[in-house]
Amino acid sequence: MPATKTGLISIKTDGDDKIEIVNQLLLPHATEFIEIKSIDDAHDAIKTMKIRGAPAIASLAALAFAADLSRALKSSADFVASPEGVRAYVTPVLAHLYTARPTAVNLGAATRRLTATLDASIVAGKTGQEICADLIAEAHKINDEDVGRNKKMSQWGGDWLADVVKQNGGSGNELNLLTVCNTGSLATSGYGTALGLITYLHETGKLGTAYYTQTAPYHQGSRLTALELQTLDINSVMICDTMVGSLFQHHNIHAVVVGADRIAKNGDTANKIGTYNAAVLAARHKIPFIVVAPISTVDLAVADGSGIPIEHRPPLEACLVRGAIYPPPSDAATNAEQAVVMITPPGLKGIYNPSFDVTPAELITAIVTEKGVATRRAGEAVFDLSAVV
Ligand code: MRU
Fold first, then answer.
1. Distance between CA 46 and CA 387 in Å, rounded?
2. 221 CA distance to ligand 1 centroid (A)?
3. Cβ of 272 less than 6 Å from ligand 1
């Protein structure tokens, strides 16, 4: 059985007010931790993608919110004196955090959960100080519970997939999977979702090879997933985004596993741009397509994928690649000197840069959450996720 290695860390806290995140813009060539000292720091880090991945941005927003309130309590800020004072302070802060990125619903789920805590504590007749304490505890829970649920869904999904492969005449071992983007420790509070499932199969000796796309234009695959798989010593192969069809034609791929930024009630799923391409090709090759995400990613208020807001990133981001200078300018064994390089003519007009696409439910074989594995009923093109949430 392969040795289990520890994954990377996206967020460090001292359990009190100090929060640090690894600057994912500089990975994999430099590891720089940045301190998040305010709500604005958190908002900026999420918006500029120093931290990214739906669960990780929800965790950071919650922790920054908790730290902000904790500082207010320590300094006996005026608003703490009354429940309505707390509401007046907290409501715009949560609304502001919610605007940092629009597609990942986990951020909204976290801010709504904190608003619900606020309402419940006020109705219970608590003092301003007690309400702040409740909010701080709830915010920490949002971060703390992530790793446990990631491990659960990884196990549910990994065992289920191995069984499906066995039922179809395979051994259920040496499973070859393709993933898109980065869904590991860096995208969550730890272990990961789709990458968690891959890690679980590796830990239980059932993984063959994990293939992953580079994931242009931000290269979450070649920069972040590559680093995570290397750190965990997982057998893996990187492919360019354009090679998915070729991979399916020439290799025995048992499943595509991806994360999600928002899942509509019918199962339509928004995830990193390029996921839909992989799903269409998987359907053509009769390869199971599995979405792994926490329940907080399911948005029952959105009936289908047409209602999911899709973030478009600044056009310039699609014109740039970032990385280390190669060959290294010195003889240094590690090359941390960073460069951002423009790959288009300067001043190029007309750039399409949606950050996510929507994979219709009919192309999805299973949606795995911490509650188990949901599949579509025979003959149905959509999921009924209201039964799962
Ligand atoms: O733009 P990003 O890097 O935040 O996009 C991340 C993804 O699309 C992930 O697949 C998704 O958030 C799931 S992370 C566990």
1. 32
2. 11
3. yes
